[in-house]
Input
Amino acid sequence: MQAVQFHEVGGPEVLHLVDIDRPTPGTGQVRIRVAASAYNAADGGMRGGFLPIPVQLPHVPGYDVSGTVDALGDGVDGLSIGDAAIGFLPMELDGGAAEYVVAPAASLVPAPTSIPLTDAAALPSVALTAWQALFDDGHLTAGQRVLVVGAGGVVGGYAIQLAKRAGVTVVATASPRSVAAVRAAGADQVIDHTTTEPLDALDGQVDVLLNLAPIDPEQFAADVAAVRDGGTVVSTTAFMATPGDEERGVAATTVFVRPDRERLAELVSLVDAGQLTVQVDRRIPLAELPALHAEAEAGRVAGKVIVLP
Output
């Protein structure tokens, strides 16, 4: 089968389209005929060797996947050959940038039926990140307010939709190119961060500040003033410290997305109920994945990209 692999960490040039043996599922595993995998920034971090995730080389990237169950290992219940499934695969294992991938059955859930199976690969880790940041780590509840900094990205789109569904008022910052998309996702107030400081535009403090952008650390620390006493600052930017305010009881939490099969199944249900929209901005063939990594390093990748084998 064809797959994209890297045999050593480094720049995008270490990625190669190769022919390798089709994997065989072991106990508790299934083999998926891949419909699509999704590109995530962490794929670049693992390839570059600056994310502390112990991948075994050679490694196939693409930990978000959708596809059809093709073979079952021993001890697998609840999945059958031919089932359409999606999953957030263990990041240290081979991913879905291939024609087939072996996955723990416990990482998979039935795919949404209301959208193409290929597009469903855009859901797992980013939607889980948004949920965990808002509710598990941010402890948001109905009637509260959240400020989403850098809401124009993929996680931001899910965060806005999920917060609004939960009865939360959403204030979001975005660049001019994404203001319309952020507003369409349901934000109550959109701040163009290129012209306006969030603190100048806010009408009162928020309960949670969710940062999704690689902003200047000094700016990040100043933005904590937007959070009420006893509130929370949550950030997905693991490479920089998340500031809080101990004197005012403002907690600080950095989100590292966690596998959660039950929550992923709930997110699928929201998609099929029309309460959560899956956005795919671009689809590329497997052979173009190395070039996509190069684009991402140059800062030219916007929106969600899925990879078709």
In short: The chain has a mean pLDDT of 96. Helices lie at 41-48, 124-137, 154-165, 179-185, 198-201, 217-223, 261-272, 289-297. The first helix runs from residue 41 to 48. The radius of gyration is 20 Å.
